[in-house]
């Protein structure tokens, strides 16, 4: 769908090793060959290391590289002193769930229970936890554990801890594999749990826990939250992208959407408030917008060239890459060097930053545009997401009457 301008694609990067892609902790290296034959060994190891995983949970999992979600029963740990147990109400469907389900990055440990855009109600509180009480409305995003000791952990930037473990497909401190929010309840360490502000609905807030914080964080890094009047670009109008547009407008910027989908223009302008819309397959439109944007966030889930995007930036402009296609993206040198432009990555956000983002959303009344789906329709929603047929986030109704969990 992305159509790079070939004359600008001067330098195609050679293929990376898997280890240079999305995640790179030692533990993840151990997990790069998730063969079915290893599962029984893995289960035995888990059985040895996690005797307190006594709670049976129903959920949905992908069991193998078929990429299909099926009903699945599994175990979670008992609620520890630092834990809270959360009755899950809603879970957003992130494109990352699709990448993991289909083993796009070669690091999936089947069975995988996806879901890291979770909202729910606290039903148990560990004795060390002062921050939360029974009945609190809370959320869990991408993070399940980190080392707690490094500079990043100590300065509330634990999302960059070298030992970071994710809400699903991670390895928790007790050696168990983490399972995500496509399930009835979860046990989470309170240090990775946030409070949902009272004025935000639980369903349309769920995707803020990943999609929201992932685009908020680069806005903050580039000092765009409190200094209005910049020209901001958003590439890819999906789950992350539509929230980036909402943040950009709420923070007082001129927002341009760069999209492969001309049919999204009306909505982008009228519903989301975008000021301009560029069809990225239209060379004339790209040319007309050269050197106009101060900052761009790239959310495109598939392989594409960064060259045409960089050309849209002013001299010294910044491109924040948050997307994680399974193939290396093309990075021609000329648009970088002629415009003295910078590219920076960004990996979700820390727990405190996520709380800050939710409070900002509460103030500006920002939530996601969602389509609620039943648990039985997860595969259909995934197929539609893969076909770019969603406005703009599917959210699974985990606790509703139609749920079979
Ligand atoms: P999404 O809802 O599917 O949106 C992606 C958008 O990319 C689509 O709406 C579409 O926008 C564009 N697109 C899709 N396929 C394309 C293709 N073949 N060529 C060109 N454009 C295409 O996905 P998402 O949930 O927002 O996630 C986006 C990416 O961010 C994923 O790779 C995900 O894994 C990653 N992610 C990273 C982090 C992080 O921490 N860095 C966190 C969450 C997600 P248009 O129709 O407008 O072109
Ligand atoms: Zn996500």
Structural account:
This is Enoyl reductase (ER) domain-containing protein. Its cofactor is Zn(2+). Mean pLDDT is 90; it is low at 1-38. Strands 3, 4, 5, 8, 9, 16 and 17 form a seven-stranded mixed sheet that branches. The two termini are 37 Å apart. The longest helix is centred in the last third of the chain and has 14 residues, at 351-364. With 405 residues, this protein is an alpha/beta fold. Helix 6 (211-221) packs across helix 7 (239-250) and helix 6 (211-221) packs across helix 12 (351-364). The chain has helices at 26-30, 39-49, 95-101, 151-154, 202-205, 211-221, 239-250, 265-270, 283-288, 307-310, 334-338, 351-364, 378-386; strands spanning 55-62, 69-76, 83-92, 118-125, 137-140, 143-145, 165-166, 185-189, 193-195, 231-235, 254-259, 276-279, 293-298, 313-321, 342-345, 370-373, 393-397. Bound molecules: NADP nicotinamide-adenine-dinucleotide phosphate and zinc ion. Residues 1-2, 94-96, 99, 210-211, 214, 236-241, 259-261, 264, 299-302, 304, 322-325, 346-348, 385, 388 line the site of NADP nicotinamide-adenine-dinucleotide phosphate. NADP nicotinamide-adenine-dinucleotide phosphate binds next to helix 3, helix 6 and helix 7.
